[in-house]
Design a protein that fits this description.
Residues 48-221 form the Helicase ATP-binding domain. Residues 246-418 form the Helicase C-terminal domain. Its EC number is 3.6.4.13. It catalyses: ATP + H2O = ADP + phosphate + H(+). This protein is an alpha/beta fold and 673 residues long. The chain folds into three domains: 3-219, P-loop containing nucleotide triphosphate hydrolases (Rossmann fold, 3-Layer(aba) Sandwich); 227-401, Rossmann fold; 466-658, no CATH class. It has 25 helices and 21 strands. The strands form three sheets. It has an eight-stranded mixed β-sheet with strand order 4-3-5-2-6-7-1-8, with helices on both faces. Helix 6 (137-146) crosses helix 7 (166-183), helix 9 crosses helix 10 (266-282) and helix 18 (470-482) packs antiparallel against helix 19. The longest helix is centred in the last third of the chain and has 20 residues, at 557-576. The radius of gyration is 26 Å and the shape is globular. The chain starts with a helix and ends in a 9-residue tail after the last helix. The protein binds one DNA strand of 9 nucleotides through helix 6, helix 12 and strand 14.
Length: 673
DNA sequence: GAGCACTGC
């Protein structure tokens, strides 16, 4: 991921903290003025009164209303941090937690990490003096495993709750319990009540209000500038064409200002980029001042940061983006948004264990979020590439993630907290019974649960402590027995990050050739292992050649760094569990047998026609073209991921001997007669 | 022959 780089670029946007005193006081004055101009400033008194009166308060306000940076300071001033208590503010994303903490510290004129700090995975910027703590939802969930009453907090603010990520949903459910437990003074400890504030941009607060027993909701004023919404008269035949035409229509007819275009994926983005570049060549010199830029998550971070640089004088930027630009990154200077009306969305079929990635219509909430990317600094326009009557037909909001994902990890976490009745658990939106049953069965087969669905000791406890997919945790536990823990730690660290390799459309061949020396005939897991090990050797030699090496091999350096951080973290975890991190040396047979024993539920066998049959679901599948085994087609493989896009694909494979399955997992596979 | 976006002390 791009986080390291993006962090630096975000920090660089801030005024220089070492500036002279005069400019510093000017800066403070400016900040004070800015704060007063925010819609939320006028409601400080009322808001604090509501927090004091209500144990749960829902605050509705669009992004940009200033609620996120101001509310923590209101709470501090109102005395919620007395007696060494903290106010915790959660965000769905790491970068947001970090940059909001930056901003709050700056506005409070304190050093980051002192009174105001943040905690995210791999990066703890807090101290014993921290009173306002920004963090990811996931971080607070992990913290709740250690301190179930969250006793250090007087208030928890859950921001961006409308996004309805799995972590936010689970967190809200747990916070409801924590609040009740603290009131009833359970566990014989005296703990003061917990205040809960839920912030949401959704138009409809009733979901949260009802969930918290009719909790009070207050609204804070919306955005400062007007945004014109324009629709097409008729449905467009091809939104890629329509987007392309609209870009040039804006460029020739509208005032200066950059354009942000929402498309569905890398290929679409790269093809529009190529079309724009080609068309520009044919235009007269004075009409050529349009600069196409692209951004999507698999793009290496150093390339992602290009979209933030201002366009050269007289030029207009046109940024072609996936929904990464909907929430994760904010690009200054955007005056025009083009909304294709489509998004690539993930769903999950628990009965077959298949993830799918489909291009689907956006929801109304998503369309609003997209148009909300303008109107922050100046008035703007949003061009929706569909008629208004089509907008009216869109679903109100995107289905909460918890209803379209594999629940194994969520359930493992709840079990670790002593919550055993999953079907009866009070989710905001209940996942289907089928999805719950499937996940329970999977956890049982992986050895995390006993046959009466209790957390197994010690395996289930160990697995719940590891911040990994349960399959990966099982692989580590088994690797301890197969004496290949060192190799498996690297493997699961690499599998845990997305897009280790970077494959631009136009250089696909070059990218693949540059990486052939990593390729291992036995499969992708060993290939990842050699990528990691080669980067290891490199680091021992000299640090600064790493970037070049990544570039030359089309390796995403941000992803690799994340994998390295993950490795360090999980290595510490398994060492704490008393595992001995030993290497199998050159005995890759044991390593592959360990993979077979770990991923036995994800095995596939070649058929006569060259396709594969997934043994567990019986589905006919194909090897994904990115696999090193794409051409060799071994008889039997284990795989990491089962995803349906244009076909049903299995990804990240390793060749195994099918006899191993019956030998290593006799409770699940019987030996063929 | 091809990968929306996030996250975990």
């Amino acid at each position: 991921m791009a986080q390291g780089e993006l962090k630096r670029s975000l920090l660089n946007n801030n005024p220089n903290p070492k500036s002279p005193i005069a400019s510093r006081s000017r800066k403070r004055q400016k900040i004070a003025e800015h704060r007063k101009s925010l819609p939320i400033a006028s409601v400080e008194k009322r808001l604090i009164e509501e927090v004091q009166k209500n144990d749960v308060l829902i605050i509705i306000g669009e992004t940009g209303s200033g609620k996120t940076t101001q509310l923590p300071q209101f709470l501090f001033r109102a005395g919620f941090c007395k007696k060494r208590k903290m106010v915790g503010i959660t965000q769905p994303r790491r970068i947001a937690a970090m940059s909001i903490a930056e901003r709050v510290a700056e506005e409070s004129d304190v050093e980051l990490g002192q009174r105001v700090g943040y905690s995210i995975r791999f990066d703890d910027c807090t101290s014993s003096t921290t009173r306002l703590k920004l963090m990811t939802d996931g971080f607070l969930l992990r913290e709740a495993l250690v301190d179930p009453l969250l006793s250090r907090y007087s208030v928890i603010v859950v921001d961006e709750a409308h996004e309805r990520t799995v972590d936010t949903d689970v967190l809200l459910a747990l916070l409801k319990d924590v609040q009740r437990d603290r009131l009833s003074g359970c566990q014989g400890r005296k703990v003061s009540p917990l205040k809960l504030i839920i912030m949401s941009a959704s138009l409809d607060a009733s979901v949260f209000s009802e969930y918290f027993g009719g909790a009070k909701a207050v609204r804070v004023e919306g955005r400062p500038f007007h945004v014109d919404i324009l629709y097409t008269v008729r449905p467009v035949e091809d939104y890629v064409d329509a987007a392309f035409n609209t870009i040039f229509q804006i460029h020739s007819e509208e005032e200066p200002g950059d354009i942000l275009v929402f498309l569905t994926g890398q290929e679409e983005i790269e093809s529009v980029e190529r079309l724009v570049k080609e068309k520009l060549k044919d235009l007269p010199e004075d009409e050529r001042k349009l600069l196409p830029l692209v951004i999507y998550s698999a793009l290496p971070s150093e390339k992602q940061t290009r979209v933030f640089a201002p366009a050269p004088t007289g030029f207009r930027k046109v940024i072609l983006a996936t929904n990464i630009a909907e929430t994760s990154i904010t690009i200054p200077g955007i005056r025009y948004v083009i909304d294709s009306g489509f998004v690539k969305a993930r769903t999950y079929d628990p009965s077959k264990g298949i993830k799918t990635l489909d291009v689907v219509e956006v929801s109304k909430a998503q369309a609003l979020q997209r148009s909300g990317r303008v109107g922050r600094e100046a008035p703007g326009k949003c061009f929706r590439l569909y008629p208004e009557r089509e907008f009216e037909k869109l679903k109100d909001s995107t289905k909460p993630e918890i209803k379209r994902c594999n629940l194994s990890n969520v359930i493992l976490h709840l079990k670790a907290r002593g919550i055993d009745d999953i079907v009866g658990f009070d989710f905001i939106d209940k996942p289907s019974r089928g999805a719950i049953v499937k996940a329970l069965a999977e956890l049982y087969l992986l050895g995390a649960l006993t046959d009466d669905c209790k957390l197994a000791k010690p395996a289930g406890e160990q697995m719940s402590r590891l911040p990994l997919d349960p399959f990966y945790s099982r692989a580590l536990i088994l690797a301890n027995q197969f004496n290949c823990l060192e190799e498996m730690l690297i493997t699961v660290a690499m599998l845990s990050v997305e897009s280790i390799f970077y494959d631009p459309l136009e250089k696909r061949e070059e990218a693949r050739n540059s990486r052939t020396h990593f390729a291992n005939v036995e499969g992708d897991h060993l290939t990842y292992l050699s990528v990691y090990r080669e980067s290891d050797e490199l680091l021992e030699k000299r640090n600064n050649i790493m970037e070049k090496w990544c570039k030359d091999n089309f390796v995403n350096s941000g992803s690799l760094k994340l994998a390295r951080d993950t490795y360090r973290e999980i290595r510490e975890h398994v060492e704490q569990m008393g595992f001995n991190v030993s290497s199998c040396g050159n005995d890759m047979l044991e390593y592959r047998r360990c993979l077979a024993a770990s991923f036995f539920l994800k095995a596939a066998q070649r058929q006569m026609d060259g396709t594969y049959r997934a043994l567990e679901s019986g589905e006919i599948v194909h090897i994904h073209p990115t696999s090193v085994l794409f051409h060799s087609k071994p008889e039997c493989v284990i795989f990491d991921e089962f995803i349906q896009t244009s076909k049903k694909y299995i990804k990240n494979l390793t060749r195994i001997d099918h006899l191993w399955l019956a030998e290593l997992v006799p409770h699940h596979y019987k030996i063929d007669e």
